[in-house]
Write a structure and sequence with these properties.
CATH class of the largest domain in chain A: Alpha Beta
Oligomer: heterotrimer
Shape of chain C: globular
Largest sheet of chain C: 2 strands, antiparallel
Number of strands of chain C: 2
Structural class of chain C: mainly alpha
Strand order of the largest sheet of chain C: 1-2
Largest interface: B-C, 51 and 53 residues
Helix content of chain A: 10-25%
Number of domains of chain A: 2
CATH topology of chain C: MetI-like fold
Strand order of the largest sheet of chain A: 6-7-8-3-9-10
Radius of gyration of chain A: 24 Å
CATH superfamily of chain C: MetI-like
Structural class of chain A: alpha+beta
Strand content of chain A: 35-45%
CATH architecture of chain C: Orthogonal Bundle
Shape of chain A: globular
CATH architecture of the largest domain in chain A: 3-Layer(aba) Sandwich
Number of strands of chain A: 20
CATH superfamily of the largest domain in chain A: P-loop containing nucleotide triphosphate hydrolases
CATH topology of the largest domain in chain A: Rossmann fold
Strand content of chain C: under 5%
Order of helices and strands of chain A: EEEHEEEHHHEHEHEEHHEEEEEEEEEE
Helix content of chain C: over 70%
Chain lengths: 357, 399, 287
Amino acid sequence: MSDVAIGIHDVTKRFGRTVAVKNATLEISQGEFFSLLGPSGSGKTTLLRIIAGLEAPDGGRVTIAGKDVTDLPPYARGVGMVFQDFLLFPHMTVAENIQFPLRMQHANRATRDERLAWIVKLLRIDGLEGRFPHQLSGGQQQRVALARGLISRPALLLLDEPLANLDRELRKEMEVEVRRYQRELGIPFVYVTHNQEEALTMSDRIAVMRAGGFEQVAPKLDVYIAPATAFVASFVGHANRLRGNLRDGMLDWKGHRLALPKIEGATDGDAIDYFIKCEHLTIAPAGTSVGANLNRVDGTIRDIIFKGQVADHLVVLGDGTEIVVSEAASLPRVKAGDAVSITWAPDAGRSFRALDT
Amino acid sequence: MTKSDILTLRAARRFNRRTVLAAGTAAAAAGFSAKATGPFIRDAKAASLELRALMWEPYNVKETVAAFEAETGATFAPTFFDGNSEAFNKMKAGGTEDFDLVMADGHWPRQYHKQGLTQVTDHSKVPNLSNSYPVFLPPNYLLDQVEGGTDMVAVPNCWGGYGVTINESKIDPADAETIEVLYMDKYAGHIITSARFEENIAETGILVADRMGTKEIARPDGKPFNPYVLTDEELEEAKKWLIKQKSLLLTRYQDYDMVDKLMISGQAWCAPEWALTFRRLLAMQRAGELDWTARHILKPKEGGLGWVDNWMISSGVQDAEKMELTYNWINRFLGKDNMIIVLREEGTASIIDVRDMCTEVEISDFLLNETDQIQGLYMFDQPSSPEKWERVWSEVEAA
Amino acid sequence: MLRRAETRFLLLGLPGVAFTVLFLLMPIVSVLIFSFWRTESYEIYADWNLDNYRAVLTNPTYLTFLGRSAYTALIVTLLCLLYAWPVAYFVAKYGGRYRLLLVLGLAAPFFTGAVLRLAALQAIMGPIGFINMVVTWFGLEPIGFIMYTKFATGIGLAYLYLPFMVTAIYLSLLNFNFQLLNVAKVNGARPWRAFWAVTWPLNWIGTVIGVVLVFIPCMAESLTPRFLGGPDGALFGTVLGQQFGETGTWAQGSAMGVLLFVVCFAVIVGMALTINPRRAGFTGAGR
């Protein structure tokens, strides 16, 4: 028996002339926390709904636990799902909402009560069983939705931006919790989000989607550190994009000559996008000597935006271009108005041939 | 909905005339207050040269009104009613001071006079009555006369019946002569009657009394047989007949359109009606649009129903000038010029002989050569007890 | 001296109060009073008595009419429910931008008067109507049992009141989140199960409103059975109307009216009791 929990094979879905998902092929392992990350319209939710059976693909197959479920209706797939707006049944109590999947499976009362006791404890919502959804806070509603998705011990859990409607603090807390449930239950979670932080926090692997296709499917660190495409590089993490032309193996960017990693097949004169993450830049007062093999540009600090452990330093170069540098906030070496030098190791960035303007 | 919605034909208004009030509780309240305070009655005493009439709307002939107003300089001020009892109630609620003339049919004039609402009329002041068929006047017709006396209390003007129209190709001619044709199994599903309770019960009452042999013997009230004054036994028997009849009926008609359609299409073979459909059938027959012959039996062998409309003078008319106006109007109304209009526009036959002004077709259609038949007809009346009749009718409908 | 707010309240409130008293309360009260009086030969006498109620409640005749009306109203309501739900559902879910137009179109029968509607029904179902024309066209015997039967009354009433039911359910479905059906399906509910577990209870209030809007007028209906129902079709409303119209027995008619009022009120209360505000799906209800 293979470790593959979900198989997506060459799945295509069109809405009219729009191709929502094109030729997607993917395998998700048992016990894996897998995120579909992408901007809105990238096809991630459609792909999730295809797995759930809420959309029928125009082509390709979907397998769950080795079984082809492409032609099965959603109620026969045995998956759990958590929706973006919680979508609790407003006319049912918390207990009834949570037990809904069990009732649909005609589970007996003892089983239902036993599972309910287990799941409310796991999700720490015990005591709320008799309430109605409108009597719950957003976080409580989200937990109830999760409990409903999990109570029948599905083969996998699909989550469609479940935290999007929660406030930031709660979201941070839930990110950790969701990850914990997944670990405890050991079933694959397929998590759709447009929020890269969420994806990076929780996932084992991430598929970055764009225009219906996969840009990169990789463990989350690879996606972060080694983006496979310019799109991934710009979408994941906070990076500065420096667009210039290749000249003698160096990047000619706004008059600066910058060293950069080698690009396969690129020749002199090609337009190049060079991405360098904000946290890979170092800031120093102007005139500080730097290593010879580092790239360096000079500018003036326009503002410093405090973000807790780090602060974004907005540096304006001579021609007005702005570069963002994330530095530890605890080092007040520089202040707004200071002339500074920005330096970085050329290998810290990723370079791609520019795809478009 | 109002009654006039149901009745599309102006001439069909007669169908509606005994309706006490429009349906609905509002009407009940209105009727009640009318009786108590008379809010609908205009204070008409102010105008001296005004002739105020409480009447059926179809008789408001504009040509005649114009001629009357031109000659006398008075104003004709009509108020319309929809049923005898409505008019009766208005007159009782102080209407004698508000109306100079009032109309009623059948037995009602005697009732009005008995209650002191109308006064004795002098037929000699209505010279146009000389053109009347004698059958509508004493000694042939006595209902306009004080009961047991010779004083006249009303002046007749129009008449009609409620005979049975039949499809001769379907109904055995022998059966057509009896009211029982409306209760015969062999015509099941092809009989229609009106939806009105009074005429249904009264007509059945004639048949029942005939069968029971109670028609010719002494009646409890000492008067001749009147199908609107039935004994409890007769009512009970009539109820049985009416219940039995239900299974034979195609339907009860609500308006003339329904009678027309059902008769013309051949779905209905016999229907008691005011001869309006019959006249249309005759017209079609003549135009070659009907491949069967229609017949109207005004008076079946057991007897039939009929009515004579009258003008009466309110007891409130005292001064000579006003009295003269009332007679002027009545006489003018009985003029042939007016009556031919009533016949042609309203589809109602007159008690005045207007045959010299009529076509052969009109003479035939309006039975102008058969006015003698009115003598054998039982006149429209109010049920002796609307409460009892209501119960009988409800029981028939619920059966 | 009234303060300004009070004056304004009175000015705003008085017309409504006056209207209610004049056109709603007065007739009801007058009917109630009449029902304890007596009529004799088209005259009403203020002799206080209970005979009208005795007659109406003990004579099987009037209870027969009431039973007929209730039965008819029930059948018609069920017919409307069965027909209106799919129609409203379809329009609400798939009507798209034509939704409003489609719903307004359902009200088309109301563009004409009651009489024209009845005439149209007669033209379709009558002995020489459209249906029989088609039937005879195919060389078959005309169908006699449609027109002038209780069946025809039922069809006529269903046709008449269907728009109320459709509109009530449609408006309810407009506020229904169809996503919940996906939730149910993913959680193992087959389509019908999902309907009964989610759609039906969450649109119960709208359905109840539709039921009341159809059932109550059907209980009181007089015109349709008169034109379509045939000799056996008299319903409570028909007979009630007769009391005021032809037989002039207003007092007894008033007692019938009061009885009808009580029955209808009981039906409304009964239907309202089926609504659990906490489970109606309205947030904010039943806190």
